[in-house]
Amino acid sequence: MDRIDRKLLNLLQRDASGTNLDMAEAVGLSPSSCLRRVRRLRKTGIIDRIVAILNPARTGRVLKAIVTVELKLHGEQHMRRFLDLVTGEEAVSQAYAVTGETDVVLILHLRDMEEFDALCDRLFRDRTNVARFFTMMVIRTAKDETAIPL
Amino acid sequence: MDRIDRKLLNLLQRDASGTNLDMAEAVGLSPSSCLRRVRRLRKTGIIDRIVAILNPARTGRVLKAIVTVELKLHGEQHMRRFLDLVTGEEAVSQAYAVTGETDVVLILHLRDMEEFDALCDRLFRDRTNVARFFTMMVIRTAKDETAIPL
DNA sequence: GTGCAGTATGCAATAAAATTGCATGGAGAT
DNA sequence: ATCTCCATGCAATTTTATTGCATACTGCAC
């Protein structure tokens, strides 16, 4: 993990659509060396995957919401059951068990309020374990970064 | 935007490292047609970008935190100033202005608590506009998905 | 300093993939 | 039915990825 690896990772985190030739030139290596480094970074798991990031608004998911959830029962099995439940929902893009006043934080990508309503029914009102939940609708996304600084 | 485009987008959201030939076969098109579709999806902005997703733990950012922030002054210029401030911080991966009890929600990727401490100093205690903030440390990440369902 | 082992590098040949022009075929409009 | 527009597949061409191999480098023991 030297300077060149970091440079490669930074490039790939911003744009992984270029050719290996371009990248080799960008970091000052031959194409073969560059390729071998990238392969190593992938094999060792530092690079988890290479994916397309879609524009959420262009996919019809125009609403984002952040929801904090307080559970009634806090045992490990109850927590896991609830997390399994939310994880199965496609509108839930992130789900975290957290410290603090609440137990779980969700980030939702929604088509409309109707979808939110239906989701709340499934997650929070059914026979589940939810004491309270607070919804924060996202007004403005100031930053939404997939890259992790090195 | 037909069935094949959706199939392509789903594939690319999971793994954009394969060759165009593979994808063409996966969706049942010739390589040239497949390539033209993917280019169109990129050009029209449905595909925002193609990036490498790193394993956060492997990069040394082993802690995640979610922070809710209440501002003292809620005017547009104050909100914008605060959002500009947090956006400039590399540990802040997501920043949202939201409805509800709080004004801003941040998601942080941290190396250690020392970094968190320093960040709090810069964002919340300086001459800024913060009334209160609540920190939720992430205990477990149940879901962290870049793909948006179509 | 010297020698060694393990690793990274560049080069060049080869294999694979991307890209393009072009002719064909299909869907919808008139 | 005919026309237009756009997507498709094919095949030729260009570009890129991949591999073997010889060399250079790095860290380390002596």
TrEMBL record, chains A, B:
<dbReference type="InterPro" id="IPR019885">
    <property type="entry name" value="Tscrpt_reg_HTH_AsnC-type_CS"/>
</dbReference>
<dbReference type="InterPro" id="IPR036388">
    <property type="entry name" value="WH-like_DNA-bd_sf"/>
</dbReference>
<dbReference type="InterPro" id="IPR019888">
    <property type="entry name" value="Tscrpt_reg_AsnC-like"/>
</dbReference>
<dbReference type="InterPro" id="IPR011991">
    <property type="entry name" value="ArsR-like_HTH"/>
</dbReference>
<dbReference type="InterPro" id="IPR011008">
    <property type="entry name" value="Dimeric_a/b-barrel"/>
</dbReference>
<dbReference type="InterPro" id="IPR019887">
    <property type="entry name" value="Tscrpt_reg_AsnC/Lrp_C"/>
</dbReference>
<dbReference type="Pfam" id="PF01037">
    <property type="entry name" value="AsnC_trans_reg"/>
</dbReference>
<dbReference type="Pfam" id="PF13404">
    <property type="entry name" value="HTH_AsnC-type"/>
</dbReference>
<feature type="domain" description="HTH asnC-type">
    <location>
        <begin position="1"/>
        <end position="62"/>
    </location>
</feature>
<keyword id="KW-0804">Transcription</keyword>
<dbReference type="InterPro" id="IPR000485">
    <property type="entry name" value="AsnC-type_HTH_dom"/>
</dbReference>
<protein>
    <submittedName>
        <fullName>Lrp/AsnC family transcriptional regulator</fullName>
    </submittedName>
</protein>
<keyword id="KW-0238">DNA-binding</keyword>
<keyword id="KW-0805">Transcription regulation</keyword>
<dbReference type="InterPro" id="IPR036390">
    <property type="entry name" value="WH_DNA-bd_sf"/>
</dbReference>
